[in-house]
Design a protein that fits this description.
Layout: E1 4-12, E2 15-22, E3 31-39, H1 42-50, E4 61-62, E5 66-74, E6 86-89, H2 99-102, H3 111-114, E7 124-127, H4 129-134, E8 136-138, H5 145-148, H6 151-164, E9 171-175, H7 179-190, E10 195-199, H8 203-212, E11 216-218, H9 225-232, E12 238-243, H10 248-256, E13 258-266
Parallel strand pairs: 9-10, 9-12, 10-11, 12-13
Antiparallel strand pairs: 1-2, 1-4, 3-5, 3-7, 5-6, 6-8
Length: 277
């Protein structure tokens, strides 16, 4: 008889139910992780509100993908991990053998879109073989699960910062000061930005942005963010602008506040089919 566990199951837009389901069975090369802490990603919220074309194609489905926990069972052939290990695993991994992987562009691997791991909002998660191989890592006892669970969004931010190619002394503008935006602020500073300008509607997030290291904080409800960024940069615009909201209006705003020959990073994910001018 299969073991049972509690889980938040996604049944469709606006319909997530806390119910019992079978504990996942693992195969060779896989591990079963007992969840120690799970986080709610912005993508989870968007999926709850409007669905997702890739992440959850079939319902009902296990939900959530940012987590850390303890290895419960190791499958045949697994030699990197043992039961009892504290680990963090991401929700996907590249194949390592395709056209893009061989060129180091792991983020473009088609496997990433075909093998998302969901189930963080449950007692146990099955980690498939390729994720065990590529994107599962031991964590020290000194690192709390709730902090380790930030590894996946932090990895996304690191990739975005790398793509931005921030140079020493540049001015960086960030639209959106949510969790992703806050990490962008800190990493932009670590990457050499001399001035970081942040725009967000929420007072709490603006205050947090200032504490995270933002030099200029803008309330776009009270002033034109594009004009303010240009005023702060001698009329040229920011060297790098990172959009971390995911709306057509802020995508356009990001382009408008970027200097000629500057870099615009459209990090925030908008709804499928979204266009902007």
């Amino acid at each position: 008889m299969s073991r049972r566990m509690n889980a938040a199951m996604y049944h469709g837009v606006g319909d997530v139910r806390y119910e019992q389901t079978d504990v996942p069975e693992i195969g060779p090369g896989e591990i079963l992780v007992k969840v120690g802490n799970a986080l709610t990603c912005g993508t989870d919220v968007k999926t709850y509100k409007r669905g997702h074309p890739i992440l959850l194609r079939h319902t009902p489905a296990l939900f959530g993908h940012e987590y850390a926990g303890t290895v419960e069972i190791v499958g045949e052939g697994v030699d990197r991990f043992n039961a009892g290990d504290r680990v963090v695993a991401t929700n996907s991994a590249p194949c390592g053998t395709c056209f893009f992987c061989k060129r180091g562009s792991f983020n473009l691997c088609p496997e990433l879109k075909e093998s998302f791991v969901n189930g963080a909002f449950a007692e146990y998660v099955r980690v498939p073989k390729h994720v065990v191989k590529w994107n599962t890592h031991r964590i020290p006892d000194s690192l709390p699960f709730r902090e380790a669970a930030l590894t996946e969004p932090l990895a996304c931010v690191v990739h975005g910062i790398e793509e931005a190619n921030i140079q020493l002394g540049e001015t960086v503008a960030i639209i959106g000061a949510g969790p992703i935006g806050q990490m962008m602020i800190m990493l932009a500073k670590k990457s050499g930005a001399s001035i970081v300008i942040v725009s967000d509607l929420a007072e709490l997030r603006r205050d947090m942005a200032a504490r995270a290291g933002a030099d200029v904080v803008i309330n776009p409800a009270k002033e034109d963010a594009v004009e303010r960024v240009r005023a702060e940069t001698g009329g040229y615009g920011a060297d790098v602008v990172i959009e971390a909201v995911g709306l057509p209006a802020t995508w356009e705003q990001a382009v408008d506040m970027t200097r000629d020959a500057g870099m615009t990073v459209l990090f925030g994910g908008a709804a499928s089919g979204t266009t902007f001018e």
